[in-house]
Amino acid sequence: QRELVESGGGSVQPGGSLRLSCKTSGFTLSFYAIGWFRQAPGKEREGVSCISSTDGSTYYKDSVKGRFTMSRDDGKNTAYLEMDNLNPDDTAVYFCAVDYGPYSPDTSCMTGPYDDWGQGTQVTVSS
User: Fold this and answer.
1) Are 6 and 22 in contact (CB under 8 A)?
2) pLDDT tens, position by position, for the chain (127 residues)?
């Protein structure tokens, strides 16, 4: 059974940091694209970051570039999202998801569609 489980969310003050984890099971993570998404109250879900399985390239949403770092430990079948210098606009439920392909050439790993999703973890940034 394929499963993704997020952890690491919480409440922090502006300027703080959090590290989210996405533990996967039931499939070999290194074979597939993995992404982080978020959804704030009253807003649509948006892509935050992803890692391509074809060339290992990483995509970041413009507003998180330089503050968020996505990584993947294939030996642990786990993806991470290191979030620094958080601000209130980062408040959302964060989800990880996997795209089993097939993948179109010359397209971002954020193109999707993403197939399986975790349950999400809440991130709240407030003073």
Assistant:
1) yes
2) 999 999 999 999 999 999 999 999 999 999 999 999 999 999 999 999 999 988 889 999 999 999 999 999 999 999 999 999 999 999 999 999 999 988 887 788 988 899 999 999 999 999 9
CB-based contacts of 43: which residues, under 8 Å, 6+ apart? 92
25 token code pair: 């099971």
Q: Find, among 33, 35, 36, the residue nearest to 92 by Cα.
A: 36
* 18-25/3-7 β-pairing: antiparallel
Total Cβ atoms within 10 A of residue 93: 18
| Confidence (pLDDT) at 112 | 84
Contact 37, 97 (CB under 8 A): yes
Residues 6+ apart with CB under 8 A from 86: 12, 14, 15, 16, 17, 18, 67, 123, 125
Residue recorded with tokens 């569609």: 113
Please check whether residue 30 is in contact with residue 8, taking contact to mean a CB–CB distance below 8 angstroms: no
